[in-house]
Design goal:
The complex is a heterodimer of chains A (297) and B (324). Chain A has 297 residues and is mainly alpha-helical. Chain A is built from 13 helices and no strands. By secondary structure, chain B is mainly α. Chains A and B meet through helix 6, helix 7, helix 11 and helix 13 of A and helix 1, helix 6, helix 7, helix 10 and helix 11 of B.
């Protein structure tokens, strides 16, 4: 810090760069302009609250059983299932699983996609060539069939297997985008400046390039959450999930048996899925516009 | 680069991709926990001698790379091996089901393109109008709806409640049709629901593409020029804008094979449609390794061909792409 030059540039930073809170506020101001984006944010908030406070909000305990297959009424807003459990309470608890799955799978996708995209984009060369060929191959294969086969390979039926498989199958797009961002940013003047001042690769990657691709990553992550929630529900519905958990996919799989007579058993879990994914999609679209992210496949 | 060199280059590029895909599929299946010999006997308790016999027969004692080379060299000769479970040739089992899935996919693709392109163009041309708002919101909802759930709801409404359309299968069982025409009509009735569900998801996706691509093109200078020249609005939209707006859409139609196959995997199970999707779930549950690997390769080949076709189509309609 004794270097007068660096002190000067830090002063400049302080003058021109708004604080983190201010920047968040600016994004929110942009986001607020779009009614749909705000609606999406509201929906995501509602689902998050439902998930967090499920034990408090749910009128019945998750193990509580009454008479089975009752239609919706004042006591049971969404009716009861085949085992006599309250559907409304089950759906609230299901929100926990869906959100957990969405966030966990996106985190896994982030870690793998970032690592591979970073290495590929920053270091280039043979490593880049090899990594990108593998990425392209996985991108070529249709996602859902790949997930079905991969999940089926495990003997255990658990939510964690599904998360693991989704994260491992889902990273290529993230890697591609991160790589292309790195490719363009590493040629920028400020990276060159940092290099000339002797900054290590590590420092350049994490202190100089990363902050600049954060918004892209956030947008992709937000838009991928509903897909993972979908895929989990789909895989579970097809019989590859953990039948003991009250996930929305399990509720739908069981409701399928009563398709002809008990409409509420499949209507409400499906609406919950639709509501959640609509929220994330609206919010993701709004974020993309507010953060001004352009993505090309 | 001429079109011919471009196509040849693209064809050559398929070879390494094919091998990489085969490695990925082979690894995926072989990473699987559990003993394939146990899978062959279906998990039944059998003596160690029998398991040993099976391992010898299927070459399971060989090192994995050796197994891979043997598998690929057989693949190249068109030998996809035999199912662990039914002992039938994998290729003929897949062959029986491909037409069913293709029928579903092509019907869905055709209807989707028709709806998505016309609605997308209207929405973009009448930007911020009611029709734009309604169709955009509709697309967003269609995009956010789980396809298997909407399939269940459709069965509930159209088959169970109203009784208009059949619930499942490709043909009403146990009836003899008076004429072949009746049989075709009956089959088409079975096709309506599964196709509509596939169309819903894909149209929503495609619509967003067409609309945003059209909006982008309409904002460009040459459109303003065309209008300034006094051209009729119809000519501007159809001759100047639409042609360019549809370019990226061509790529998405190639990409759709993967999307629709994923959709078919789910829809076919809900509607008991005897295609590749239903087959895939069944054999995945049974862990029929040779069939799974074969099916994986067939699906990959289908996707590769679709991508190749869309790339070539793109190069034909947009000569610029060849110079990249």
């Amino acid at each position: 810090m004794s270097n007068p030059l660096s002190a000067k540039s830090e002063d400049k930073d302080k003058i021109y760069k708004p604080s983190r809170a201010t920047r968040l506020f600016l994004v929110w101001k942009k986001l607020r302009r779009s009614t749909l984006a705000v609606a999406g944010f509201g929906i995501v908030l509602v689902v998050a609250i439902a998930a967090l406070l499920a034990p408090v909000i749910a009128p019945y305990d998750i193990d509580w059983t009454g008479s089975s297959r009752r239609p919706p009424s004042m006591e049971h807003w969404f009716g009861t299932d085949a085992r006599g459990r309250d559907m409304f309470s089950l759906i609230l608890y299901g929100a926990r699983i869906s959100l957990y799955v969405g966030i966990a799978a996106v985190s896994l996708e982030l870690v793998i996609g970032l690592a591979i995209g970073m290495i590929s984009g920053y270091f280039g060369g043979v490593v880049d060539e090899v990594l990108m060929r593998i990425t392209d191959v996985i991108l070529t294969l249709p996602e859902l069939p790949l997930l079905i086969v991969a999940v089926a390979m495990f003997a255990v039926r658990s939510i964690h297997v599904i998360i693991l498989v989704m994260g491992v199958v889902g990273w290529p797009f993230m890697a591609r985008v991160v790589r292309s961002e790195f490719l363009s940013l590493k040629e920028s003047t400020y990276v060159e400046a940092a290099k000339s001042m002797g900054a290590s690769s590590w420092r350049i990657i994490f202190r100089h390039i990363m902050p600049n691709i954060l918004s892209t990553i956030i947008v992709i992550g937000t838009m991928d959450i509903p897909w993972y929630i979908f895929y989990e529900a789909t895989l579970t519905f097809l019989g590859f999930g953990d039948p003991s958990s009250p996930s929305w996919g399990v509720l739908l799989e069981k409701g399928y048996l009563y398709l002809g007579s008990q409409w509420w058993m499949i209507t409400f879990p499906g609406l919950a899925l639709l509501f959640t994914s609509l929220g994330f999609n609206l919010f993701g679209d709004g974020l993309r516009d507010a953060l001004d992210v352009t993505m090309r496949r | 680069m001429t079109l011919r060199t471009y196509v040849i280059r693209r064809l050559i590029l398929i070879i390494p991709t094919f091998f990489l895909i085969s490695v990925v599929i082979f690894t995926l299946i072989h990473l699987a926990p559990g003993d394939p010999a146990q899978a062959i006997v279906g998990g039944r308790p059998v003596s160690r001698e029998i398991l040993h016999q099976i391992r010898l027969e299927y070459g399971l004692y060989d090192p994995v790379p050796v197994q891979y080379v043997r598998w690929v060299s057989k693949l190249l000769r068109g030998d996809f091996g035999f199912s662990f479970i039914s002992q039938r040739p994998v290729l003929s089992m897949i062959g029986e089901r491909i037409p069913r899935t293709l029928e579903l996919m092509l019907a869905a693709e055709f209807v989707s393109i028709l709806i998505a392109v016309s609605l997308g163009v209207i929405a973009a041309v009448k930007h911020y109008s009611l029709i734009d708002a309604v169709s955009s919101l509709g697309a967003l909802i269609g995009y956010s709806t789980p396809n298997f759930w909407i399939a269940l709801v459709a069965i509930m409404v159209f088959s169970v409640e109203l009784g208009w359309l059949p619930v499942s299968g490709t043909q009403t069982l146990g009836t003899s049709f008076a004429s072949p025409l009746d049989a075709i009509v009956d089959h088409l009735k079975h096709l309506i629901l599964p196709t509509s569900i596939l169309v819903l998801g894909w149209t929503a996706y495609l619509f967003r593409m067409v609309r945003s691509s059209m909006l982008e093109v309409l904002g460009q200078d040459y459109i303003t020029t065309a209008r300034a020249k006094g051209l009729k609005e119809r000519v501007v939209i159809y001759k100047h804008a639409l042609r360019n707006a549809l370019l990226p859409v061509v790529t998405y139609v190639g990409y759709s094979i993967g999307f629709l196959l994923g959709g078919a995997a789910v829809i076919e199970n809900v509607f008991a449609w005897p295609g590749l999707g239903q087959f895939m779930v069944t054999i995945a549950e049974k862990r029929d390794y040779p069939t799974l690997m074969g099916l994986g390769m067939i699906i990959a080949i289908m996707v590769l061909i679709a991508n190749l076709c869309s790339d070539i189509a793109y190069a034909v309609v947009d000569p610029r792409i060849r110079y990249e």
